[in-house]
Amino acid sequence: MTMGTAALAMTLAVAGVCMGQSAAKTPTTTPTASAAANAGILPTPVKGATSLPLPASITPNGVVVEDVVARVNGQIITRSDVERAQAQMEHEIEADNVPADTAAERRKNLLRDLVDQQLLLSKGKEMDINADAQVITQLDEIRKQNHFATMEELQQAAQQSGVSFEDFKANIKNGIISQQVIREQVGRRLQLTHADVQKYYDEHKSDFTVAESVKLSEILIPTADNNDATVAAAKAKAEQVAAELKAGAKFEDVAKKESGGPTAADGGELGEFKRGALAKELEDKTFGQAAGTVTVPIRTRQGFVLLKVNAYTPAGAQPLADVEPQVEEAVYMKEMQPALRAYLTQLREESFVDIKPGFTDSGASAKQTKPIFTAYALPAKKGAATAATTEHEKTKREFDRHGYKTPAVKKQAEPPQTANIKTTKKGKNKVKREKVRYGQVPRETLPSVPTLAATETGSADASTSLMQQALPEPVDTNTPNPLEAKQRPKKKSRYAAHPVAVKPKKVKAKAVAAPAPTATESATEKVQSAPLGLAGDTAKKKPQQEKGSFFKPKKKRLESGSGAGATQQPTPSATGTNNKQ
Predict the structure, then answer these.
(1) Phi, psi for residue 566 in degrees, rounded to 5
(2) Which residues contact 252 (CB under 8 A, 6 or more apart)?
(3) Do residues 195 and 57 share a domain?
(4) Which end of the chain has the smaller Cβ count within 10 Å, N or C?
(5) 106 and 64 in a common domain
(6) pTM above 0.90, yes or no
(7) Of 120, 57, 58, 115, which Cα lies nearest the Cα of 85?
(8) Same structural domain for residues 87 and 199?
(9) How far apart are CA 424 and CA 428, in angstroms?
(10) Domain that residue 24 falls in
(11) What tens digit of pLDDT does each residue of 482-514 get?
């Protein structure tokens, strides 16, 4: 794993979770820096870490303890987040003995990695990634690894170590979401072939060379002292165990039953040993042996031991078939580095990233967008025209729809229109009320009515003044009557200047009677309308029988037809005249 990937993985795993807060934090100050440090407000300086730039305090002799360092879309990165990630990074550098140049590069890219994490979290939110189930699964695995019975014990252990359990869960969730985004958006687009794996293996064979090693299991028959009888008894028991194993007994079962060493409960598993880690006698009898080989009882200071070779690895480069998964992972990480950096640069260009002056984002792009913060301005009043608007309206009025320029004419203010007052049958005034919308001035106003002064003394002067007020004023014929309905000017239309065209009325022509047909035409029409029959004249119709007469006896039908009481039906005359009187 290269430096950039290691730094990003470290950030995803251990960076603070205050970045997930959406509310902006304003800088707060304390009386003095020494008092803040003594109270534990300021973080403890980390060895090798560079000091972060501090903004100016808003109070004298104060120091800023919290500030917003970066804004990524709707999220923020605070000073506490940077200091927490910086402390964790310095701890890992010291524990892993990282070279100086690599440590300097990781310190330089610290803020870049924090911004990268926020970009991945924003993309995960856009993709609707839910990691709650995976967080619970991973917490349960951590609980099992630390041998805690319940999740409450894990929470108590985290609090006792000074780590907030909620922050711990948030860190795990952020890491899972970031890994899913990288896998979906970057990892699925990488295509690796066997030729790429073989080429990488040939170029980096030295990375896959291992030292000679062996994995062993033991059965120990201890000796309490160096007494000859005790040693003889232990040797006899060891030979008996060797005979059982040779007969086909399972080594792990015999070790749990007969072994007196600390590894008996695990079936005698000892682990892996490289050349030089064991005594020469033990190495000579185990190294170079095939897997499954069991040695004869060997005398040691603890007693007699039987060793089983579980696996033997010779020194040198391992074949590709044995290390192919490791090679594929190495090729994948090599291809992942540039693809991941290109994808994070693309996210920067599609997002809003604002870095506070004094801090540097080493992964910034020249095309990324920075948000602009402006002060709130009151909206302009409705109807208030600015200079630009007035000039635009003036120019617009000077041109009509025909395209030529006409001089602007100032519009004179129209006098307020009076209300249309009508009189009912009883002589009362009937005023038509006008609907006035909110924020508008009424177009029609009511006529002014003289007010009568109420007097209680009944003096002659008061009555005279009332009469004078009641008398009508002299009518001026030239002054228009305000109570008279005023005709509104006609609106100008497109065809107002053209004379009205009078359409001529259409005169309906009278129907002319058709001339009488001639004799030839009548004869021809009669011949054409005559019926044509193949078996005689079809114009003659058969006499219709009376309904139900077919079923009567023939004699009765004859009698009914020739009886004295039978009435004769009138026959039409030859001339075709009717018998109607």
Answers:
(1) -75, 140
(2) 217, 267, 268
(3) yes
(4) C
(5) yes
(6) no
(7) 115
(8) yes
(9) 5
(10) 3-126+186-203+323-355
(11) 666 666 666 556 655 566 667 777 777 666 677
